[in-house]
Amino acid sequence: MKKLELLNLTKSFSSFKALSNVSIELLSGETHALMGENGAGKTTLIKVLAGILKPDQMIMKIDNNIQNTYSSIQSKNLGFNFIHQELNIVSYLSVAENMFLNHPYPKKYITIIDWNKIYKLSSKALEELGVTHIDVKKKCSKLSTGDQMLVKIASCLIKTDTTPTLYVFDEPTAALTLQESEKLFKVINNLKKKGAIILYVSHRMNEILEISDKVTVLRDGIKVLTDKTSELSKEKIIRSMVGKDLSDNFPERTGNINENIVIDVNNVHTKNIRNINFKIKAGEVLGIAGLSNSGQREIFNMLMGVDNIDKGKISFMDQKYEPNSPSDAWKKLISFVPRERRKEALMLKMSVKSNTTTPHYSKLSKFFFLANKQQENLITNNYSKKVQLKYENMNQSIYQLSGGNQQKVVFSRALASNPKLLLLDEPTRGVDVGAKLDIYNLIIQLTKNGCGIVLNSSDLSEIMGMCDKILILKDHEQYKILENFKINSQDLLANFYESKK
Amino acid sequence: MKILNLIKKYGTLIGFFGIIIFFTINLPSTFLTAKNFINISQQISMLAVVAFTMTVVMVMNDFDLSVGSMASLAGIVAAVLFSMGYPIWIGILAALFVGIIGGLFNGFLVSIIGILPFVATLGTLTMFSGFAFLISGGRTIFGRDIPSEFSSFARSGIEISSLDLKIPFLSILALLILFIVWFILEQTTYGRRLYAIGGNPEASFLAGIKVKQLRLSAFALTGLGAAIAGLMYSSRVASSNPTQGSGLMLEAIAAVFLGMTMSEEGEPRVLYTLLGVLILGVLDNGLTQMNVDSYIREVLVGFIVILAVAFSSITKKRN
User: Fold this and answer.
1) What is the pTM of this model?
2) How confident is the model over B109-138, as pLDDT tens digits?
3) Gap from B174 CA to chain A (nearest CA, Å)
4) N or C: less crowded end of chain B, CB within 10 Å?
């Protein structure tokens, strides 16, 4: 396949037009980036390509031949591959078995599975992508998220009869670390060289500029831009995504850090991290940085009381702080925005109201046990407004909201107790540019009110743009703290690797 | 489209009225009478109590298979103490105590040790049943061993002389427990937290809910409910035997499932559980009156439960 064209694609959901008259041309050997804010129609387009959604109107041409019918089965037969951030990996099966999930197992003597052949074919598929560090006999649960994604991509190469033609990546790097992303980009380049068509969706501007050949931007279901990446700039792409000038830069911090210390962590060890030392003043933002899985999550576990303190001590608001469970942390006005909102923060089938008030039931109750409905409604209304949540009403179920709005519910929940310390673990992951800016502004608003903030992010520009000091982790241990830093992202990154020795 | 939505939302309720209309037509003189409905309310009172308290654990996506044998065990414990000459209140308190301890043990296995509720309560089902046989020596305790004050509770009620009706104490007790469970689940922060755990246990834990303690306590409530039902049954038949509660577990779970077909996101609500219990009770009463063979009755009841749940999951999937 040399060329795949979608012409005049229109799809509406009842009265809402998700896509109207969108045309896109994808060429073999080219990485085509698809961009747009959440709700712009990217996911709808991908679902149409996968044959999951039936468009109201569309002409599909493959190498200039019109396809009359199109379904998910045809999409499969054509060798189209879809790689999401949520991987369908069976963690207790080996790498090789996972790669053969969609393919018949090779057999010998009619019925016996030919394991040698399975291992050989799967290693070969990985090698074709230039991946040599993954042992195909290993259980997938032992692999990092990035490696799991590479396994998933390689599994598309198992089939020998049809060579894969189209790869669609839907925010693949959202869950990956820098070095894992680098590996992925290499693999994408290899696929490109083999003549695959690549459609790449991401919110991360820098990687789009780095790896794509062409960019198409959707806004409110309409195509507003298609151009060669070399002709484009970050500013231009952002401008067409949001329809107005909006800087990707971070909002101005007004320096009003006060001398009161919110939290003082003194040489703390837990079962998972060692030697943690930092102080946060009221209105200060501490960034957590380092290679992935260097102990970022464990810092939050320590502060939330998920992992107990083995050594050292923490004082919070000048009092000894020894949390035994997250319940102790919330009681002390420490709020938490966890990394994976669907898994760790939200009850998807429950209402905006329940989700906003869950951590605060004790404070909202009458006579210690009665649910206080007026208070719950009031809090939900106030804080939803504060975070500029777009929703119909507070009894609406969370799963009906977009990703960015779901994240805003997690924020309004965290703010509802007027926290003294706010813990943010990857707060802008998978969130569109507009909502990101809202979140940054909220953080600044909070620091003005004297809230201390711990911010972990794998987006280096976010760390540098938002934080007053940066704690660098290495192998689950504190490596150093950068205060009053003047540093660019390359030098910061160099710090991670330097610490790797 | 609108009609489909209505059916989706009220399908089970419509089915319930369909059943009532069917019996009213086929049993014109006996079915739709106040006397018969009071009779039904007494017949279902034990099942209702078990189903209401079962709802408490099912709110958290757990369930308890041991309620039936707990009901048997509690009845036996009380009866054995009666036969040894202890006063009634001691027998009752001991039975309730056994219910709470058994429930706590279930909760301990599920939430502290971390065994799946299915496996843990399957184990305790057998254990409780074994204890019931052990304590009673495998025989039914009846006759003079059961004090008449105890068994007369089930036979008496509040007389409404103007209508020549008697509302049985058993039905009133079931209503009281319905109110308590409704209050706990819908009006207290405790109930809110149970629903949150059902929505997402990990997120609830990180949001500061003491998941382990709450699960433990919810199982204790279910155990207590089962013990109450066991006492009600013993009082009603003026005897205790080690298998008396065995039918309760499946019907109670079925009633909660029937109820779940009526709520918006498929979560259990105790008032809907009541409807589930009523459907099962009315079916049983009507089919018995129509002299339908009891084996056929079982087939029918099972079929109707599957039908309702299947219908609701099909329509919800389409949504």
Assistant:
1) 0.78
2) 999 999 999 999 999 999 999 999 999 999
3) 23
4) N
